[in-house]
Amino acid sequence: MPVITNINDLKKIYERRVPRMFYDYAESGSWTEQTFRENTTDFEQIYLRQRVAFDMTGRSTQSQMIGQDVSMPVALAPVGLTGMQHADGEIKAARAAEAFGVPYTLSTMSICSIEDVAEHTNTPFWMQVYTLKDDDFMQRLFDRAKDAKCSAAVITVDLQLLGQRHKDLKNGLSAPPKLTVKSVSNMMTKVQWGLGMLGTKRRFFGNIVGHAKGVEDPSSLSTWTAEAFDQSLDWARIKKFRDMWDGPLIIKGILDADDARDALNVGADAIIVSNHGGRQLDGALSAIRALPSIMDAVGDKIEVHLDSGIRSGQDVLKALSLGAKGTYIGRAYVYGLGAMGQAGVTKALEVIHKELDTSMGLCGVRNIADLSRDNLLVPADFEGRWA
User: Fold this and answer.
1) What superfamily in CATH does domain 7-377 come from?
2) Is residue 353 flagged as an active site residue?
3) Where are the domains of the chain?
4) Which of 115-124, 267-276, 330-339, 377-386 comes out lowest in average pLDDT?
5) How far are the Cα atoms of 27, 76, 129, 245, 304 from residue 79, in angstroms, in the given order?
6) pTM over 0.85
7) CA atoms of 21 and 82, how far apart (whole Å)
8) Tens of pLDDT along 39-96?
9) Choice among 86, 276, 305, 353 that is catalytic
C-alpha cells in the first residue's frame, strides 16, 4: 500500500481502479473547463499569513454547520452516480462521514436510495434535491427524506438545464454503463471495481427508478431526465419548494450577490457559493473568487458555505478565513472512494483535517471561530476589476 499524504495520492490510485467513463465523469467540467481549472488554481492566489510565538496547544477544528456539531466544517457534497465509482458508494461514503463527525449529503441522482443509506447509517444525513417540474415527485422526495430522518435539505438551483460536458457525451455515460467494445475493454482492466459491482444489486438510480412517473426501469430514465428539469424556474417556485420542507434548508449554486439576497428572502438557512464544480456555466467565476462579494452582501444575515475547488485543508482554511461557515468536498472524497472504498473516504477526510489543523496552528490560530481575513494575504484585485 503506498503512503498517502495528500488528496492527489488518492487521485492517482482512483484513476487506476475506476473505469474511464466514471473517472471522466468526476474529473471534468463543461466546455473548455476554464471554470473547472480556476476553481482550484484561484486558491493558489491567496496566501496564508504565518505567525510565530503564539500558543498552538489545545487546537480544535470543531465547529457547527446550520446548528449541527461537526468535527470540522467540511461536509461531503452531493455527487451523482457515486455508487458507480465504487459498489454501494453512497452507503460507504455516508458511513465514513458519520464516523468522522461531518455531514454527508446524498444526491437525488444517487445509485443507493434514501432508504438504503438510512438503513445502513445511524446519524441523520442531508438530502440534495433538484428543481424539477413534477410537484408530486418533489413532495414525495421531501417526504421520503423526512421519513429517513434527514436533518437538512439542499436545493440545487444551478441546474435548470445541463451544461455540456464533452467527455460524458463521448463516453456515453450511463448507469449502469452501456456495454460497448470501448467500455467493456476498459472495464475488463478494472478487476476490483468489477467484482464489487457484480456483488451488489445497486446499479441504477435508486431515488428515481420506481419512484418517478413513467420510470419503471433504467431504459426509460434518459427520457425522464431530459424532460424533468424546470427551465422556467424562478424564486417563487423555489419558495414553493421551501414550503414543501419544514426542516433546515440550504440553497446550493449561488455565485452572484443578487442571487444570494434572493435566497435569503425565500427563507433559506444557508447558501452554498458554488458553480457546480465547473460543470455548468464555463467561464463563470471560481467559487472562492465569488465568495467575498457574497459575504459583503449577506454574510451577516445568513450562513454562507463554499463548494467547488477544495482539494486540501489549506483550501478549507482560506474559505473559512474569508468568512464561510462551512465547506464541501466532492471530487476529493470521490477519489478516496474509488481508490479504497470507505477507507479511502476516511483517508481523504484525515488528510484534509491534518492540513487544516496544522496550517491553522502555523497561522497562530487555535479555534475555527477565530479565523478571519487577518490570517490571509489576498491580492487587491482578487475579485477582478471589471469594466
Assistant:
1) Aldolase class I (3.20.20.70)
2) no
3) 7-377
4) 377-386
5) 12, 9, 11, 21, 20
6) yes
7) 13
8) 999 999 999 999 999 999 999 999 999 999 999 999 999 999 999 999 999 999 999 9
9) 276
